[in-house]
Automatic annotation (TrEMBL):
Membership in a protein family: Belongs to the AAA ATPase family. In the C-terminal section; belongs to the peptidase M41 family.
Subcellular localization(s) per the UniProt record: Cell membrane
Task performed by this protein: Acts as a processive, ATP-dependent zinc metallopeptidase for both cytoplasmic and membrane proteins. Plays a role in the quality control of integral membrane proteins.
Residues of the full protein shown: 187 to 459 of 650
Protein name: ATP-dependent zinc metalloprotease FtsH
The protein's assembly and partners: Homohexamer.
Top-level taxonomic group: Bacteria
Stretches assigned to the AAA+ ATPase domain: 49-189
Record: residues binding ATP: 57-64
């Protein structure tokens, strides 16, 4: 995800109006909002409120956005870390940062902890040989499991995690009482792409003839992040041409650039996989 988020537990200003499409995921996230806002409704009947929710979907489909909107809608502080940060740290640092994060989130409960790219720390153990083993990653993962098990289900802290590689996750993370709720975010269909363009042109100055439907037709397979990118790139292109408003041709040119960027990126990324 592109948003660098706070470890200080700031309030999120993002809400469901910032998210287009993803209707089913929103319904499930709404339920989590209710767990945070009205816990007694559930605990009164003896229910245990889920502790961990896994957001699963391809890159750029709005997992980080959804987590921030959840915190925004519930009006609770948002604490976060990114799994990839820990892989290159000195031994012990990752685990202590995890401990610290949970401690602060509990002090501020009700609150949300968001762990982006959890697969970076939560990759299945045992599949690596000694040569590739990453002690820091393992100790971070172990600390995460300890923290998840260490707080009761009704403490008002809900931990969200995001991944686009659920297949490589350590099964221990998905056990009951840990990340046992899974919410899927899919790439948008054409109608949803129209709606996502709608969200991202809100702040832009557009020429009258801009046709979002055509843009959505021209971008099959694009994620919400790609569309956000196109909209901003189109504004930059129009500004560079000293236009007073952004025209359809600027969006088309922006789309070409985003496609070019994606192609370059996949060339760089694919040999590693
Ligand atoms: P990654 O897997 O790369 O971490 P992600 O799934 O966390 O990605 P986000 O970081 O949430 O994706 O999305 C990046 C940006 O794309 C968002 O900040 C937002 O601008 C835009 N975006 C993604 N999905 C949507 C959506 N459904 N509606 C509106 N905007 C979206």
């Amino acid at each position: 995800a592109t948003i660098r988020v706070s470890e200080k537990g700031q309030k999120s200003h993002i809400n469901f109006n910032d998210i287009a499409g993803l209707k089913e995921a929103k319904v499930e996230v709404m339920e989590v909002v209710d767990f945070l806002k009205n816990p007694e409704k559930y605990t009164k009947l003896g229910a245990k409120i889920p502790k961990g929710v896994m957001l699963i979907g391809p890159p750029g489909t709005g997992k980080t956005l959804m987590a921030k909107a959840l915190a925004g809608e519930a009006g609770v502080p948002f604490f976060s870390m990114s799994g990839s940060e820990f892989v290159e740290m000195f031994v012990g640092v990752g685990a202590s940062r995890v401990r610290d994060l949970f401690k602060r989130a509990k002090e501020k409960a009700p609150s949300i902890i968001f762990i982006d790219e959890i697969d970076a720390v939560g990759r299945s153990r045992g599949k690596v040989n000694a040569f590739q083993a990453n002690d820091e990653r393992e100790s971070t993962l172990n600390q995460l499991l300890t923290e998840l098990d260490g707080f009761g289900p009704n403490t008002g802290v809900i931990v969200l995690a995001a991944t686009n590689r659920p297949d490589i996750l350590d099964r221990a993370l998905l056990r009951p009482g840990r990340f046992d709720r899974h919410i899927y975010l899919e790439l948008p269909n054409k109608q949803e792409r129209i709606e996502i363009f709608g969200v991202h042109i809100r702040g832009l100055k557009l020429a009258k003839k801009v046709n979002i439907e055509e843009l959505a037709t021209l971008s099959p397979g694009f994620s919400g992040a790609d569309i956000a990118n196109i909209c901003n790139e189109a504004a930059l292109i129009a500004a560079r041409k000293k236009k007073k408003a952004i025209e359809q041709e600027d969006f088309i040119e922006a789309r070409e650039r985003v496609v070019g960027g994606l192609e370059r990126k996949s060339k760089i990324i694919s040999p590693k996989e």
